[in-house]
Amino acid sequence: GAGVSQTPSNKVTEKGKYVELRCDPISGHTALYWYRQSLGQGPEFLIYFQGTGAADDSGLPNDRFFAVRPEGSVSTLKIQRTERGDSAVYLCASSPTSGTGANVLTFGAGSRLTVL
Amino acid sequence: DQQVKQNSPSLSVQEGRISILNCDYTNSMFDYFLWYKKYPAEGPTFLISISSIKDKNEDGRFTVFLNKSAKHLSLHIVPSQPGDSAVYFCAARGTSNTGKLIFGQGTTLQVKP
After folding, report:
1. Of A8, A74, B29, B34, which residue is most buried, by most CB within 10 angstroms?
2. Percent of chain A whose predicted confidence (pLDDT) is above 70
3. Cα A62 to chain center, whole Å?
């Protein structure tokens, strides 16, 4: 697609529920990133995919968070047993890994998660 | 420990004047720096970048300056326009040559007509 698409744009859930957030990157971008932005803070790195594999998941806060990218395109961020502290905007970004624009991230509009 | 810091949460300037946004970092291994701009309800948009081997990069009204000895970079916008009003994030990259970035907290710029 023309840009990075994220769904849903807003998600309200109850504490303890399971949530999935979807990211559709720019076509042809092999690198995909998930970031989390809390109120008043800058984006915080969560995980990076190169193709289908997670090349760096060092930013995932704990084992309740998991992400997949089974076909090297669309990615899903999964959060189990949500907690109020998980409330944030979850940003997805993609980039090419060679040529012009390599490693310059294009972000989606984000999915705002609110855990009540 | 915040490795990238933007100590000014907000900045207000008059249209036509210069806007200077500042950013400090602590890790001397950072090799690439970027500025992103963010409007409400949108994702951050790439603005300009600079490699650690340079001290200045210019793109139209936007110029980024890097002072490695001081571990400081700044973004100059001149002349400032009301459409520049947004949150500006400074970001730094380690030597992993990926898009794994460490962002500052952001500075909200308001350009008054």
Report:
1. B34
2. 98
3. 15
Yes or no: say if B44 and B11 are a contact pair by the CB < 8 Å rule.
no
**Residue range B37-61, pLDDT digits in tens:** 999 989 999 999 999 999 999 999 9
Cross-chain Cβ contact B93/A103 below 8 Å: yes
Beta-ladder partners of A68: A76
Whether A101 shows a pLDDT value over 80: the answer reads no
Q: Is B104 on the interface with A (CB under 8 A)?
A: yes
- Count of Cβ atoms closer than 10 Å to residue A74 Cβ: 15
A54 vs B22: CA distance, rounded Å: 33
Nearest by CB: A105 against B46, B102, B104: B46
CA distance A23 to A91: 9
